[in-house]
RNA sequence: GCGGGCGUGGCGGAACGGCAGACGCGCCGGACUUAGGAUCCGGUGGGUUCACCCCCGUGGAGGUUCAAGUCCUCUCGCCCGCACCA
């Protein structure tokens, strides 16, 4: 039978302290202005049902950071909320018949909130927000109006990504490999009138300021850089023969313009119809265009997709060479990028080369590399490197790098073109034809056109009595009470916009709102925003590397420009945590490898769950779940329990021992205590190596077990007191409940979480002696203990005086001696 | 194809260029036990011996260095992101 004192009863201890903390409101954000601030933020969750292990990892990491900084004297803002609008709520409502998305969402929020409380995360719940509450989305709408007011929100008809399964349009960022990121259905193109945000206006700044983000992982910065996709080049106009039209083409290689042997338009290019009109090819081309457009994005853009092109029969003129080149239409040219057409330079572009070979189009070399001459007919690939311009009229002999500028300049001079910078980034499409989102605060009036809802009428509330079925039209359109409204401008009959906003909009500014979550007058208070922003540490999954983080950066820059926030970048430091895996794969219901946090907390308690997740791997790396590893952490906490709990009443507070008076085991224990403080402080405060911090605490506990074996009369009670108090303080951020229980148990006052972090004494950590290793010709021959702080010369003397060393070196010539204090001595002999 | 990351025991993972494998899991042994799948203590990379010494070991091949898991060059393998972007 297990004895009672063998195990600690987390099921009693954890709820007890959670209630105690809540009663005393100890996690409320302090108002103390005398201390430095620290804003610690974890990505708020979508209330999908219950917490999963990824959440536990995310919030455990954040909690250690928040608690550590609090104990280190910072005013910490550590809030939590809910990214509560979104499709799953609506889909659940459809599936479960009459359950309203709001009910489903609120139920999930209650469940997940109580789970977070059971984990003992130190949130200031008085600042909780949910993006689906009118008190929040009012400000989402308000922000939309600010963007509109500043010309950054506009409506246009465009070919947009349509997910037939979600029955809504999607942002470019939400489409991966031609399929909907959420439901994996193939995405179609549709022509629709939609609202966009002009994020492209900020492309340059979003790119440029990545350099400022020293506290961000390189990986995320590179992903954003690629997404923005800046490329420098020129737009050059090719007049169409006869018709008086002009084809404007974008190229990054104006230096190869003399090598153009054909021109290709995207099937959707507006000029196509005009060019082919009345020509014999017209029918065939129309059919081809229709065909390409009916193809799904996947088929059209997949790597293996064959390049197919057709001659239109029309020609255009190369303004520089005066040459006549045929115009084609081809499936590989994308209307969305550049100007929707490509100048074909087969000699110097691999894609063009393959295309030209397939259709027998001529290849003209205009860049000569340093090596052998290129023979167009013998070429097996394009030459895409640098070289010297040839066959290029007045530019012959110019290095291609200079040629780029020279040709661009010449075109500008002649009025044939201009230098431009192109971005892959497109404007952010925010309209969604779904119910469960923030309504777009716009009214259509036959007389006045598009009229914004005046700010004092916000929020435009989402009606509750609506049929939410994915019909392809917003369910709000079926709700006359919502749609019909007087025009705010003329008072006549108006119709509300019935689309709702992309939920990424709601989550792109929530971290600002946490500073004034209950302010009903303003989006946030000036004093509060200046005090807390930017976020010092942001923690979340790398899956948000582009969407959420890019949109948030965009909003921050906009809000900075209109002087509503004090910073141009929202998140100073970013930690992207790794995934939680089981059997080498991401946990998922379909794979049946899910470990539920609920079960783990019920079996082992929150402290064990947290400790395991922090101990098993460094935070950025993927973490392999191990039931036995969890067991080990539970065992460790019990070990702490058995060590400290019996000390209740026997461990009276004592002033810290004087290092220099300590000898033997007391000195060793004292050293271990301070070495552990130093290690844990560095690992948590500096590099976020929580795993090695935990292992240092484990070592300290092992040391304490040894120390305890020494008869009480032979050790200094002040050393034990110092060790135990330090241990509980160091453990507090990782395992808050057991630390609190033991802290109070040994009779200390206040909460362990409101104590100052222990400080190490350098003198206590220093070794009395250091071991130096003697190598002869690189091989270890001897080890010698020397007093700490000895000079290099003194050390050499000590090495030479060793008979062992003398024997080794005897009769040989000493070539070199290298001595590094505290490390080793190497003697090179011949 | 381009960009980024990672390769260390049976496993998760430690190692300012300085005794590779901390800590934990697993395994083996001892103690305490009627018993232990509890607890405490000890051992645990491989080889040879089976006490000691010694030799080999961080995906592979070179290089720099008194000294390389760590730095440099090449190479193999895995993971992630982007990908007809003109």
Task: Characterise the protein shown here.
With 830 residues, the protein is α+β, with helices and mostly antiparallel strands. The protein has 27 helices and 34 strands. It is globular, with a radius of gyration of 34 Å. It starts with 9 loop residues before the first helix and ends with a strand. The chain binds one RNA strand of 86 nucleotides through helix 7, strand 11, strand 15, helix 11 and strand 30.
What value does the average pLDDT take? 88
Q: Give the beta-strand count.
A: 34
Structural class designation: alpha+beta
Largest sheet: 4 strands, parallel
Percent helix:
25-40%
Low-pLDDT windows of residues: 1-5
Strand order of the largest sheet: 2-1-26-27
Per DSSP, what share of the residues sits in E-state strands of 2 or more residues?
15-25%
Task: Give the termini separation.
Answer: 68 Å
Overall geometry:
globular
Gyration radius, to the nearest Å?
34 Å
Compute the number of helices: 27
Oligomer: single chain
């Amino acid at each position: 039978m297990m004895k009672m004192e063998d195990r600690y009863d987390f099921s009693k201890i954890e709820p007890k302290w959670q209630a105690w903390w809540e009663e005393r409101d100890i996690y409320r954000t302090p108002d103390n202005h005398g201390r430095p601030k620290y804003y610690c933020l974890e990505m708020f969750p979508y209330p999908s049902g219950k917490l999963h292990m990824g959440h536990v990892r995310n919030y455990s990491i954040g909690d250690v950071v928040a608690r550590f900084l609090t104990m280190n004297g910072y005013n910490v803002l550590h809030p939590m909320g809910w990214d509560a609008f979104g499709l799953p709520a609506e889909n659940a409502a459809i599936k479960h018949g009459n359950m309203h998305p709001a009910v489903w969402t609120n139920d999930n929020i209650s469940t997940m909130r109580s789970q977070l409380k059971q984990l003992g995360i130190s949130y200031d719940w008085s600042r909780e927000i949910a993006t689906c509450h009118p008190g929040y989305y009012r400000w989402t709408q308000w922000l939309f109006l600010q963007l509109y007011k500043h010309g950054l929100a506009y409506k246009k008809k465009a070919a947009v990504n349509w997910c037939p399964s979600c029955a809504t349009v999607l942002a470019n960022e939400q489409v991966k490999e031609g399929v909907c990121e959420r439901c994996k259905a193939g995405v179609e193109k549709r022509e629709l009138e939609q609202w966009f945000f002009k994020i492209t206006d900020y492309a340059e700044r979003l790119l440029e300021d990545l350099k400022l983000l020293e506290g961000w992982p390189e990986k995320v910065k590179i992903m954003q850089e690629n997404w923005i996709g800046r490329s420098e080049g020129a737009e050059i106009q090719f007049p169409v023969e006869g018709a008086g039209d002009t084809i404007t083409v974008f190229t990054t290689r104006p230096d190869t313009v003399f090598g153009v042997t054909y021109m290709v338009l995207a099937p959707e290019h507006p000029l196509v119809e005009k060019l082919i009109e009345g020509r014999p090819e017209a029918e065939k081309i129309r059919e081809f265009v229709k065909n390409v457009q009916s193809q799904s994005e996947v088929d059209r853009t997949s790597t293996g997709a064959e390049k197919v092109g057709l001659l239109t029969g029309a020609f255009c003129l190369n303004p520089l060479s005066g040459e006549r080149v045929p115009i084609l239409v081809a499936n590989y040219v994308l209307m969305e990028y550049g100007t929707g057409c490509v100048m074909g330079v087969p000699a110097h572009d691999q894609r063009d080369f393959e295309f030209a070979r397939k259709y027998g189009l001529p290849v003209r070399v205009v860049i000569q590399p340093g090596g052998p001459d290129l023979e167009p007919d013998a070429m097996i690939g394009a030459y895409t490197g640098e070289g010297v311009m040839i066959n290029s009229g007045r530019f012959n002999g110019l290095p291609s790098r200079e040629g780029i500028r020279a040709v661009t300049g010449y075109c500008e001079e002649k009025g044939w073109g201009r230098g431009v910078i192109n971005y892959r980034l497109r404007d952010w499409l925010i309209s969604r034809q779904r119910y469960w989102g923030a309504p777009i605060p716009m009214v259509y009036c036959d007389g006045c056109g598009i009229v914004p809802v005046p700010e004092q009428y916000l929020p435009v509330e989402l009606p509750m009595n609506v049929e939410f079925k994915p019909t392809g039209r917003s369910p709000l359109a079926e709700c006359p009470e919502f749609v019909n409204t007087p025009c705010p401008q003329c008072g006549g009959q108006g119709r509300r916009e019935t689309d709702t906003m992309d939920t990424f909009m709601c989550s792109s500014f929530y971290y600002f709102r946490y500073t004034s979550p209950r302010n009903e007058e303003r989006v946030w208070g000036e004093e509060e925003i200046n005090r807390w922003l930017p976020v010092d540490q942001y923690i979340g999954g790398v899956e948000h590397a582009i969407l959420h983080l890019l949109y948030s950066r965009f909003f921050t820059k906009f809000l900075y420009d209109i002087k509503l926030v004090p910073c141009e970048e929202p998140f100073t430091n970013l930690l992207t945590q790794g995934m939680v895996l089981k059997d080498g794969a991401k946990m998922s219901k379909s794979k049946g490898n899910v470990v539920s946090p609920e079960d783990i907390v019920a079996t082992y308690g929150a402290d064990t769950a947290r400790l395991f997740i922090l101990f098993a791997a460094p935070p950025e790396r993927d973490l392999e779940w191990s039931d036995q590893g969890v067991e080990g952490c539970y065992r460790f906490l019990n070990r702490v329990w058995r060590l400290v709990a019996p000390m209740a009443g026997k461990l009276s507070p004592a002033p810290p021992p004087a290092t220099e008076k300590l000898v033997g085991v007391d000195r060793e224990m004292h050293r271990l205590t301070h070495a552990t403080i130093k290690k844990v402080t560095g690992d948590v405060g500096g590099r976020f190596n929580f795993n090695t911090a935990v292992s240092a605490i484990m070592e300290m506990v092992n040391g304490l077990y040894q120390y305890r074996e020494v008869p009480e009369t032979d050790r200094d009670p002040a050393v034990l007191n110092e060790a135990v108090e330090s241990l509980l303080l160091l453990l507090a951020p990782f395992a808050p409940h057991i630390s609190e229980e033991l802290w109070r148990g040994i009779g200390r006052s206040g909460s362990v979480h409101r104590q100052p972090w222990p400080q190490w004494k350098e003198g206590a950590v220093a070794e009395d002696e250091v071991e130096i290793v003697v190598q002869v010709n690189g091989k270890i021959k001897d080890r010698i203990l020397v007093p700490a702080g000895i000079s290099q010369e003194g050390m050499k003397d000590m090495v030479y005086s060793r008979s062992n060393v003398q024997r080794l070196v005897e009769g040989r010539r000493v070539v070199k001696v290298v001595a590094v204090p505290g490390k080793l001595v190497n003697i090179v002999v011949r």
